[in-house]
Amino acid sequence: MKFIGALLVSLAVVTAVVEIDCKKARPIEEFDHYWAHLPTELQALRDSRPSGRITNGREAIPGQFPYHGVLNMEFDLGIGVCGSSILSRNYILTAAHCVDGAHGGWVIVGAHDRLIYEPTQQTIPFEVEGVSIHPGYTLDRIRNDIATVRLTSSMEFNDRVQPIRMPSRTDGRTFSGMLGTISGHGRTSDASPDLSPVLRYAINPILTNANCLEQWGNAVQYIEPQNICLSGYAGRSACNSDSGGPLTVQDNEESLQVGVLSFGPLAGCESGIPTVYARVTYYLDWILANTDIEDVAV
């Protein structure tokens, strides 16, 4: 299959009300400020892209992904929604494009159904001063799309709220061929614009970057060594509203985060084109320098 590198889209969503209402949510790509930073060839595609969604996934068992956080960002245009992962009691990890320009916000952890209050949920705010965006981040080619967020108060760990395990500095694996898992509250079908109220997930193989490049039509301007790709086989994929969410693998019977969801194909999640992530091992030094976590033992 031939696809040009311009066929990509950021995966965040924005709603125009302070209290998140999935039925009123719409993709961030519908707002002028998002497209203003993209190159001309992408702006030309603005009115021709399909709606994003998470397709052919499964509903998570409550507590199955205790490291997942629902990140809500306050912008001039409204409230954005992204995924995130818990690094420590004080820090979360997400995509840079999720928090770029945000005035603050909050993260909900321990949530299964984000539309209702659950006793397991903790809602913790953050301020703009707590946001650290990678200094090399650029939206025009979606480079270094990674950020950490310091919360204004500490979360409490329990069986529904736990930090994700990070690779060590000495972990030289590419993780290609391993099964990767992505979780989020993204859209579930083309027919409905609504986001999933409950946490869902999809599992597919992690690709080599060479294979990913081939499926993206050799788009070397977008797929680089600091990226990691998850297959879109059988239409299992994550899209709008899932940006910043963690890509994990099972390692010694534990979830290990290997990617941060960055972008996917404009051709749609059911197209089978891989979704693309910031590769965690590439950014470990930066993550450690901008959080309170320490390098894990070998």
Task: Give the mean pLDDT.
Answer: 80
What is the 3D shape?
globular
**Unreliable segments (pLDDT under 50, ≥5 consecutive)?**
1-7, 13-31, 44-53
N to C succession of SSEs: EEEHHEEEEHEEEEEHEEEEH
Rg calc: 17 Å
Q: How much of the polypeptide forms β-strand, as a percent range?
A: 25-35%
How many helices? The count is 5
Number of strands: 16
How would a textbook summarize the main sheet?
Answer: 6 strands, antiparallel, barrel
Question: What is the name of the CATH architecture of the largest domain?
Answer: Beta Barrel
Tell me the domain tally: 2
Task: Output the keywords.
298 residues, mainly beta, Thrombin, subunit H, 6-stranded antiparallel beta barrel, 5 helices, 16 strands, 31% strand, globular
Structure, described:
There is one protein chain. The protein has 5 helices and 16 strands. It has 298 residues and is mostly beta strands. It folds into 2 domains: 9-51 and 68-163 and 285-289, Trypsin-like serine proteases (Thrombin, subunit H), CATH 2.40.10.10; 179-282, Thrombin, subunit H (Beta Barrel).
Briefly say what this structure is.
This protein is mostly beta strands. The protein has helices at 32-35, 40-43, 96-99, 209-215, 284-289, and strands spanning 9-10, 13-15, 26-27, 58-59, 68-75, 78-86, 91-94, 104-109, 122-133, 147-151, 179-184, 200-207, 227-230, 246-251, 254-264, 275-279. The protein folds into two domains: 9-51 and 68-163 and 285-289, Thrombin, subunit H (Beta Barrel), CATH 2.40.10.10; 179-282, Thrombin, subunit H.
